[in-house]
Amino acid sequence: MIARLDRRESGSDSNGDAARKVRVRAPAKINLFLHVGDKRSDGYHALESLIVFAETSDGIEIGPGSDLKLKITGPFGKALSRESDNLVLKAARALQAKYPHEGQGAHIALEKNLPLASGIGGGSADAAATLRGLNGFWRLELPEDELLDIAAEIGSDVPACLLSSPCWMEGRGERVSKLGAMPPFELVLVNPGVAVPTRPVFAALNARTGIGAMARPPVLASVWELVAYLADAGNDLEGPAGRFAPVIEDALAALGHEPACVLAQMSGSGATCFGLFDGSVYAAGAAERIAEEHPHWWVKSTRIAAPGIGAPQWSSTA
Ligand code: C5P
């Protein structure tokens, strides 16, 4: 997953550094369940979560440059451009500060397709993709555990996003371990158009499942086995997020009313909800109906991503 490239692979031998480019996908993160434990002495809550990634993603492209520059495009790019800082630059600077080399610039283009502050890790996925991409682009060749340490400093969801493959998350989010392959399934993602900031949702938490209620999943052969495994699980942040944004209930209801939806739940601290479907035709149909009824919502039919989705892809412009 993490780029470990020799000079020929990275294209510099034949084309020179000026010709190198790397593209990295930043897939949406889905918390299939999210249980919250006690608040720790550092102010963060202990978490336990089963995380998978969807095929729908933001995109990062890194090209040469003498300084660090970020250009943002895409349907949610405008909203992000107004923010004073960005997790992509934070990730790039964190890597630069730890491992400074001469001439370490990069021009980064972010295609922002995922809604902001939406519980599917958009900003965290972008930061993680930047770390994966720059690790190869700057030929740092850092091993995954070192990148995970940097990721944890950037945000609680960034380590999981660095793996971009099914994983078990613990601690405040910094302890992540890859799981075996999940069964294939379709997802419909529904964001009812409200940005929900993470901190107040955690602060409003009252009831919680706590840590240790779920064992890691066994090998799951079908989406039905996954649903059975998730029977006693949920998202502890759904209640508090719903108090900030009651429309989350409507999004869950819209998914739940779809006859082929086998599980509907909120991801992360909201407001994006996901429905699991056993079949792409059903998922596409559900997404179409929900989008038609709620033209201002963001609705996306997608599927669980293969583990390699976040691997850097090299190209040459020469
Ligand atoms: O780490 P991150 O910046 O994503 O966290 C945003 C906020 O969410 C934190 O400031 C904290 O209030 C809350 N949080 C928490 N426990 C976690 C993760 C986040 O309380 N494990």
- Class derived from helix and strand content: alpha+beta
Gap between N and C termini, in Å? 26 Å
What percent strand?
25-35%
Major sheet summary line:
7 strands, mixed
Low-confidence stretches: 1-15
Secondary structure: helix percent: 25-40%
Average pLDDT level = 92
Count, helices: 11
Determine Rg (CA atoms, Å). Answer: 19 Å
Strand tally, please?
Answer: 11
Q: Give the H and E element order.
A: HEEEHHEHHHEEEHHHHEEHEE
Small-molecule binders here are: cytidine-5'-monophosphate
The rough form would be described as globular
SSE layout:
Blueprint: H1 12-15, E1 20-39, E2 45-63, E3 68-73, H2 77-81, H3 87-98, E4 106-111, H4 122-137, H5 144-154, H6 158-163, E5 167-171, E6 175-178, E7 186-191, H7 198-203, H8 223-229, H9 238-244, H10 247-256, E8 261-266, E9 273-277, H11 280-293, E10 298-303, E11 313-316
Parallel strand pairs: 3-4
Antiparallel strand pairs: 1-2, 1-11, 2-4, 2-5, 5-6, 7-9, 7-10, 8-9
The structure holds cytidine-5'-monophosphate.
Cytidine-5'-monophosphate binds next to strand 2 and helix 7.
Task: Characterise this structure.
This protein has 318 residues and is of the alpha+beta class. The chain contains eleven helices and eleven strands. Helix 3 packs parallel to helix 4 (122-137). Residues 1-15 have low confidence and may be disordered. Bound molecules: cytidine-5'-monophosphate. Cytidine-5'-monophosphate binds at residues 44-45, 47, 155-157, 172-173, 198-199, 202.
